[in-house]
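Re: Re: token formats

Sure, here are both.
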Amino acid sequence: MTGFSLSRLLRRVRALLDPAKDPVPVELTDGWRGTGPVVLVGGFCTTELNLDPLRARLTRLGYAVTTYTVGSGLGCGRRTVADLKDVVRAAARAAGSPVRLLGYSRGGQFARAVAADPSMPVSSLVTLGTPFDVYGVSVPLRLQAAALAVAGTLGVPGLFTLSCFYGTCCASFHDGLRAVPEVPFTAVYSREDRLVRWRACLDPAARTIEVPGSHLGLLVDHEPLRAVAEALGACDASPVPA
């Protein structure tokens, strides 16, 4: 199979089973190191376990990382963004400086909507494998999302509904996805991603960086880490106004 690597797959499995262990030995160069708060936002079906390898590496680089996976990326966009804003404000107050937002998959959509609000204490935005086109995902994933939306519409708690996509419920969330963030914005993507169509990750407001690997690999592989570290380090946060 083109692009298949058994050793890479085994590293990813080990990363998920033992998040405390760095799946690939990486030399942490001085240019990658940084300080200040980072809020790492999970996406569709993302858990804390999925985010732990990236969180651990960013912590080793010197960042104070807060992870956000409430609802595993399956909730209403409007309510999720409102809740994420509270998390960002709390992280900025605790650190005394604006937050760097890092969003994975659908989490990058939530992060972009927050970063587009000029009142938020955000200094930069980085997305990993985030489709900015609602339909920019694989057909199986689209069908899964549609089934979940139907379940949410029928009353299953904690799920987005059809109104989130086609009604007025998430109009403000969709507006945030179209607005241009007034902070440095980097979108990291892979053409090898089988879950998200890579062209959907090319936001015209962002500086784009292509890396190799799968959708899951964006959280554990070397090249995405390098791209994220360089993007985070390129922004020097300033104190939060009193």
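Second one below.
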Amino acid sequence: MADEIEQSPMQNPEKDPDDWTTGDEPMTGPQRSYLQTLCREGKEDFSEDWTKAEASKKIEELQNKTGRGKS
């Protein structure tokens, strides 16, 4: 078992939004708020209809476009 990589219970590995079990649910309030800001800054349209997974992908896309979220 020495070859197995142990993962701390506190670690939260990133999971592809397409694999989320709740990805088809409506986006969360914090996602909505942040996306409205990112869309405004990125000069893109905002949609109330995005799912959690779609919102997550759009956040990542707009962070790259606007430079937000980078250390």
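The two ends are 36 Å apart (CA to CA). The CA atoms of residues 2 and 28 lie 40 Å apart.
- S.
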